[in-house]
Amino acid sequence: MYALEDINTMDRAAFLASFGDIAEHSPWVAEGAFALKPYADRPGMIDAFSKVMQEASRPDQLALIRAHPDLAGKAARSGDIAEASRSEQAGAGLDTLTDEEFTRFTALNNAYRERFEFPFIFAVRGATKQMILAAFETRLLNDADTEFQTALTQIARIFRFRLEDLVIE
């Protein structure tokens, strides 16, 4: 855990070492958030990460979305995802899927990627497998622009959860 007063005095290297992985495989978000220091409070820090993402170019936003792993996908099942993602997915029970559930998640992941050309993003903290599956099915009906914005909203929620775990006010 980091105290906000310590974060506000961190140099760039220390900040990136501590927060560079908040945005899945996209340290540019932390770099942008670093430039917005000092933060008045933890919500201000969370807002800085979200602001950098929201103000990024559409290609950078798409790259950020695409950097996320499939929920309960092959990479998750083999353990080949970021530690934060592994922990979050485990918290939703996605690490203990039956073969039938894994097959269903795989089919939905594939259908979603085929329709939108990026992975399904869902901030899984506090969710159950059933909630995630229901969101998959509902969101597959969205148009591409709506789903792109929904993915960014979900990523902002992921930022919030991850920073709340790391930062003391």
Give the SSE layout:
Elements: E1 2-3, H1 4-7, H2 12-19, H3 27-34, H4 42-55, H5 58-66, H6 74-78, H7 83-91, H8 99-116, H9 129-139, H10 144-166, E2 167-168
Parallel strand pairs: 1-2
Helix pairs in contact: 2-3, 3-4, 4-10
Describe the structure.
The model has no long low-confidence stretch (mean pLDDT 91). A two-stranded parallel sheet has the order 1-2. Helix 3 packs across helix 4. It is an all-alpha fold and 169 residues long. The chain is 64% helix and 2% strand.
Per DSSP, what share of the residues sits in E-state strands of 2 or more residues? under 5%
Radius of gyration: 16 Å
Count up the helices.
10
Q: What is the residue-mean pLDDT, rounded to a whole number?
A: 91
- pLDDT below 50 for ≥5 consecutive residues: which ranges? none
**Overall form:** globular
